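Q: Hi! First time doing this. I have a protein sequence and I read that you can turn it into a structure. Is that right? Here it is:
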Amino acid sequence: MRGIEGRLAHIERDISDMRQENRATREEFRAEIERLREEMRDLRLEMRSWVRWMLVVLLSMWGSLMAALFLR
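A: Yes, that's right. Below is the predicted 3D structure, encoded as structure tokens:
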């Protein structure tokens, strides 16, 4: 009987350990997901600023071209 109780206690400890590892893994995944979200946010902001800069350059070039055509 003690052998069975010992095995059951061992199985219960294993289950408890697995649950703790599972919680830790979930927390690691949550942290990684949050880090990736922040990185995506930063990339979006960087891309928006780059697109705005390109629009300013293109509009100024277009304005210069129109001015050159009208001033001829």
